[in-house]
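Quick one: structure tokens for this chain, please?
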Amino acid sequence: MLVLAVDTATPAVTSGLVRLGDGAAQDLETLAVRVTENPRAHAEVLTPLILECLAEAGCEPADLDAVVVGIGPGPFTGLRVGMATAAAFGDALGIPVHGVCTLDALAADVFAADVPPGSDLLVVTDARRREVYWARYSGGSRVEGPEVRKPAEVTAAPSRRVAGSPAHAELFDLPVVPVHSPSPAGLVTVAASELTARAAPQPLVPLYLRRPDAVETAARKK
């Protein structure tokens, strides 16, 4: 199964192609990856990155079997770029689009790298307004979150390590795992069971966790 994976919930714009086998989630191969750190140009760079990945892998859009997209939590503007692009590919090609929590994908990358599955992990990303999006994992599964809070309101214990935004991970008295944004493999890993089962995807619902910064201007009083 050839899967396109994209995420724009962090400052990084991530795109990649992953070949997923019919077995366990570990039975996958990353064919191409593009990651660009440009939080102000998600819309401009995402589609070109996808096309670059397809060209590198020697594939056409018609070869895709599914799309996996990070649904946040993340900033309103950046997050909707990735989700809208994923939905457009799915609609144009008639293939399923699976949404996954971006923090779950980050955790999947950490556990795949060097953290034993039983180790408790804290994942934090930048929520702006001096806050963080966070979730806690134990045994490879999410046990708390996702939520948005000030860093001082998020306890380090019982986590043994922290991953995510470097500037925010350093605020916690924990060893930092250098995983800053979700990889295509991490995104696909989270959705692997649904993909291999050919399950119908859930509706794409973004994890904003709070109201967007932009609001309609109130009508002027006469």
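DSSP finds five helices and ten strands in the chain.
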